[in-house]
Design a protein that fits this description.
The chain is built from 9 helices and 8 strands. By secondary structure, the chain is of the alpha/beta class. The strands form 3 sheets. It has a 4-stranded mixed sheet, sandwiched between helices. The chain is globular, with a radius of gyration of 20 Å.
Length: about 200
């Protein structure tokens, strides 16, 4: 769906905006952040949570002064247990003192319970789906689970949406103009609602 890709780009956007930002690789089962940042994954969140690393040892810096990241670290045998430990809260409290924004790249919601435990620390929860890829029935099930857990502030990003051929455009020549084609706000105009 592009969950990790979205997290990296969101963290980068906040950093470019001048906000001190850190990206946390909290998918301890299938880590990806280290691949996207092109670094090794020998230490990180997991090694901190088991007491083998200090916070300052796992924070990695980028070429941008406002953007840091922590990879997930080695894959542990007990990821849920580690993420539910007090050390997770301790890590987040330390990072809150140093950063304006903490972006967490977590395991996919619905497949494992890890992500639900982390939501108690979040301000906004963003789900990433992908057009023509995400299973609609699975998405409905996850949305029902979110509702049953009384989780608030959930946003949805639909990734890989193909723009219609007739859309927003500019016209140059003797004059300057712009216009909207079909497709933009199509359902709102007809009063339809899609789920």
């Amino acid at each position: 769906e592009g969950k990790s890709f979205t997290a990296v780009n969101m963290a980068s956007a906040y950093a470019l905006y001048g906000k001190k930002t850190i990206l946390l690789g909290l998918d301890l089962r299938k880590p990806v952040v280290h691949k996207l940042m092109n670094v090794k994954n020998s230490s990180g969140v997991s090694t901190y949570l088991i007491g083998q690393s200090e916070v300052e040892d796992i924070i990695q810096h980028t070429s941008h002064p406002n953007l840091d990241f922590i990879t997930s670290g080695l894959i542990p045998p007990n990821p849920s247990e580690l993420l539910e430990s007090e050390k997770t809260q301790e890590l987040l409290e330390i990072l809150k003192q140093q950063y304006d924004y903490i972006i967490m790249d977590t395991a996919p919601i619905g497949l494992v319970s890890d992500t639900y435990h982390l939501m108690k620390y979040t301000t906004i929860n963003i789900m990433v789906t992908r057009q023509h890829y995400t299973d609609k029935k699975a998405l409905v099930t996850v949305l029902d689970e979110i509702d049953n857990h009384n989780i608030e502030n959930v946003c949805l990003i639909i990734n890989d949406v193909k723009a219609p051929k007739r859309g927003y455009g500019y016209r140059y020549g003797y004059g300057y103009g712009y216009g909207y084609g079909y497709g933009y706000g199509h359902y709102a105009e007809k009063g339809k609602r899609r789920r």
